[in-house]
Amino acid sequence: MTLYITKDGHVDAERIKVKIFSGIERGTMSAINGIVVHQTNSPTANATFNSYSSTTNGGAPNGAHFLIDKDGTIYQTASLYRATNHVGLMQSRCIITRQCHPTELKHAQSLERIKIVSNKAKAVHLNEVQKAWPGRYPSNADSIGIEIVGLAIGPRNREVYEPVNDAQNSSLKWLINQLAETLEVSMHEVYRHPDIGRKNPTEASTAKW
């Protein structure tokens, strides 16, 4: 059975609590090509909700469409018809999969050779967002983000995300399967955040669906 989605992009389902934060919503999302799984790096759902309600240096907060709490409760935090900033700087699908034209691969490899890491990441990202999917990974503009409450623990730059628990994984599996069927998203286009972005490799590493 597919999910019922209202005209506002809100899911009407017994297992989902709708708690929309309009501040994390961006422009209209006209296509949905993928799903990206994250961890919040926060200890509680409320800590993440507080961040969704705040602004930093006058800017709008980042966020995702769903959040799964420690007890497995699923919250919808943004409309399915609105983009959110949850992917960040993208990696090159061409380099990772090698499924692209040799000329494109050569160009992507030249960007990866930029010595300053921050400049390299930005250059690769800007090159990727100019492409149409599936020539790139799903981006902010065409993917659903799912956050799982969980902290990254350890010394700076060596943090390890705490394991996703059984209740969270059960809810994640249900949610991804429901979204994939309803929105006609291929299960091959469901990713952990580090698979497609420049993120801590342990983020969502224990997520299962």
What are the SSEs and their pairings?
Blueprint: E1 4-5, E2 11-12, E3 16-18, E4 25-28, E5 34-39, H1 45-53, E6 66-68, E7 74-76, E8 82-84, H2 93-97, H3 102-112, H4 117-129, E9 143-148, E10 152-153, E11 160-161, H5 166-183, E12 190-192, H6 193-196
Parallel strand pairs: 3-7, 5-9, 5-12, 6-9
Antiparallel strand pairs: 1-2, 4-8, 6-7, 10-11
Radius of gyration, whole Å: 17 Å
Q: How widely separated are the two ends?
A: 18 Å
CATH class of the largest domain: Alpha Beta
The number of helical runs is 6
Instruction: Please estimate the helix content.
Output: 25-40%
Structure in words:
With about 210 residues, the protein is of the alpha/beta class. The protein has two domains: about 5-90 and about 140-195, 3-Layer(aba) Sandwich (Lysozyme-like); about 95-130, no CATH class. Helix content is about 30%, strand content about 20%. It has six helices and twelve strands. The chain has helices at about 45-55, 95, 100-110, 115-130, 165-185, 195; strands spanning about 5, 10, 15-20, 25-30, 35-40, 65-70, 75, 80-85, 145-150, 150-155, 160, 190. The strands form four sheets. A six-stranded mixed β-sheet has the order 3-7-6-9-5-12. The protein has a two-stranded antiparallel sheet with strand order 1-2. It has a two-stranded antiparallel sheet with strand order 4-8. It is globular. The two termini are about 20 Å apart.
